[in-house]
Amino acid sequence: MAVESTISKVCPDSGLGGLVSNGHVDNNTDDHKTEKPFVSTNGASDGDLSFDSIEDSIAAFREGSFIIVLDAPTRENEGDLICPAQDFTPERAAFMIRHTSGLICCPLSPAIASHLCLPQMVPPSKNSEMDGTAYTGSVDGVGGGITTGISAHDRAMTCVKLSSPDAQPLDFRRPGHIFPLRVKEGGVRERSGHTEATLEFCRLAGKREVGAICELVEDGEELPPAQDGIGRMGRTIPNGGMLRGERCLAFGRRWGIKVCTIEALVEYLDKHEK
After folding, report:
1. pLDDT value at position 156?
2. Residue 13 is a catalytic residue
């Protein structure tokens, strides 16, 4: 009965009593089997290190493909790998885990966060995160073949569940291995972050308002063995370990992923949604 007890504490008005049997929830969710393009099929040439247009980025996102979005050099100065949560397969999750920090987050609308009883990790007035990112409590999905919650399969299925229009609070265990992020109502024009950019792309591409997102990192190089013969494991960490600027563009061209900026997204919205 631990799941019911936890949900009742964070969302006492949810009316969830009596829905748990023997401490287990089974929503009979089938494995996510939809096959969609892994990356955009219309990538630019390898030698082109210019940013893609917002129109092309929206089109790729609509296909269910990854896109890379960069914020301002004066902000985090990072590139995030982003995908619609509803199209997040185990294969995509494995790719994301391999090339990013691995801390997969799910930006979602305030309405979905409230519906799923996902309160913020700390009250907004006490949020001391550098850019005020609104983390909620972490979750794992229940059912659908999910076990411990940490594998690429399990994390992908949790993201898919978060994006389901039928999702309910009891479809998730807390804490878990996916970190939902509550988006600002005003989008990138209120907060120019990757969190808000993700939902703008979801909305513009006609996707449900939940994304899967993580920061790209520099792979570095393996350190040589120590002179004394004692094993040494590690890698170099260029640029502080984060993939930035032209390195994000080069990564995108290597994998056929559209690359754009939040600044260009704001300009696009100002032009088309006055």
Report:
1. 98
2. no
